[in-house]
Every structure is written in C-alpha cells, then in structure tokens.
Hints:
globular, 2 domains, mainly beta, Pectate Lyase C-like, single chain, binds 2-acetamido-2-deoxy-beta-D-glucopyranose, 4 helices, 4-stranded parallel sheet
Amino acid sequence: MVQPLTSFVRTVLLFIILHRSTLAMANVNIQCAKPASIYVPRGRYLLGKTKFDGQNCKNKAITIRIDGTLVGPTDYRVLGNAGNWIIFRRVSGLSIYGGTLDGRGKGLWDCKASGKSCPIGATEAGVQNVTVKTVTFTGTQNGVRIKTWAKPSNGFVRGVLFQHATMINVQNPIIIEQNYCPDNTNCPNQVSGVKISDVMYQDIHGSSATQVAVKFYCSKKYPCNKITLKDVNLTYKNQPALSTCANARGSASGLVKPSSCL
Length: 262
Ligand SMILES: *[C@@H]1O[C@H](CO)[C@@H](O)[C@H](O)[C@H]1NC(C)=O
Ligand SMILES: *[C@@H]1O[C@H](CO)[C@@H](O)[C@H](O)[C@H]1NC(C)=O
C-alpha cells in the first residue's frame, strides 16, 4: 500500500498504456517525499475516474506532462454517475504541461437537454464558488476561461475568482464564451441557458498573443452580470491591447489595461 508515488503512478500509467481499450480506475495515494512527476506520451489513452490525493504527502507538488490525449469513458454514464473524472485533492503546486483532456461529455449534455433521466453529473444545478489562483499560462490558447454550451439549460456559474495569474503569450488571456458550440453542430446561433454572474478577475497580468486580450461574449437573453476586473495589466506586442464585450455587465477598479468594456 505504501509505495513511493512515482513507482505507483508509473504502474498506473503503464496500466493505462497497456490497456488502451480498457478503463483504468485509479486511486493514487501520494506518499511522496519528492514532487511527483507523471508523463503521458503521444497517443490516446482511456482514463476512468482518477484521484490524486496529497494528504499523506511530504511534498504536495505534482507535475504532469502530456504529449498525447487522455480520453474519458465512451459511456457518458460512467463519469456522469461518478460526478467527476480527474480529481486533485490536497495537492499544492500542480503543473500541467501540454496535451489534451477529452472527457467526452457531449452525451451527458445531450442527455440533459433531452429531459430523460440522466446521471447526477448532468443534473447538478450549476457551478459555484470556484477559486483559481497563482497560475501561469505559457503559450496556451486560453488563459482564464468560462465557456458554456449554446443549449437550453437551467444551470448557472457564479462566484468565480481568478486571482494572481500570469499570462505569457496567451491567445485569449481572459475569455467568457456563452455561445460555445463544439464542431459547430446542433447549436450554431443558439444561446446558452447557463447564467453567468459574479466573476472576479484580480491581478491578472502579462502578454496576450492576440490584440483582443479580454473577451466577454454573452447573450442578449442571458447577459453576464457582476463581472469585475481589478488590477489587470495585459499587453499586446507593441500595440495597445483591446477588450470586447457583448451583453456583459460589471465594473472595473484599480489599473485595468486594456481599458474595460464592461
Ligand atoms: C458560495 O458562497 C456564498 C458566499 O460566500 C455562500 O453564501 C454560499 O453558500 C456558497 N455556496 C456553496 C454551494 O458553497
Ligand atoms: C503593465 O505591464 C507592462 C508590461 O509588463 C509594464 O511595462 C507596465 O509597467 C505595467 N504597468 C503597471 C502600471 O504596472
């Protein structure tokens, strides 16, 4: 039971790699003295519900490098019933580099819109009270992002705090998209029923890879409310960065660059 994390994790990953068509169910107990380090090579790997728990850990840091793609179970009910896919608990200093995580959540969302009885993961009312802080994004497509699927929903996202984030050449450092439509199928030109409110961006700084560094795209039907920018300093090459807002309401305080469109 008490195994050094690295070898245990290696075992778990080996299991995943050797059983590409199988689901790996892993509970990884971190018993580590050194920071844990996990590498996922190129390829697609099925991964079932997985927990990384740092409770008994001297060093609670964990680094994951992903060159490939981790894929959730085909049957959306598996994760839907579990309520989550990959969980980190009591870790401090989590770094994730590269890679793609595909939870295959589409079926769950389709179920939710259909009115059938769906797994608990699909019936939760919303997302509330989330803090993301002290994060560095380097060369990524998105920085701090909230996206909601352009489908009817009674859900909500509220009470989100993004704090102390550094952006290094990030395409969308700050973005809310209420019209997210994967593959542009079944939802173009629709709006999301998920209501977004009470989102705070505090001390977000660094460089944007595109001129529009702050994007709030919300719908006329369900505008985003109580969006707050506080001490934001995003630059774009040698030109002024811009922000664009659609149906977003809120306020800005402290130094906010690009100037707020809220
Ligand atoms: C979210 O935070 C608010 C304000 O602190 C609190 O009233 C509410 O109970 C919290 N909700 C949950 C689900 O924790
Ligand atoms: C904003 O960031 C730029 C680039 O990092 C820096 O030169 C500038 O001093 C910052 N402005 C403030 C007021 O902190």
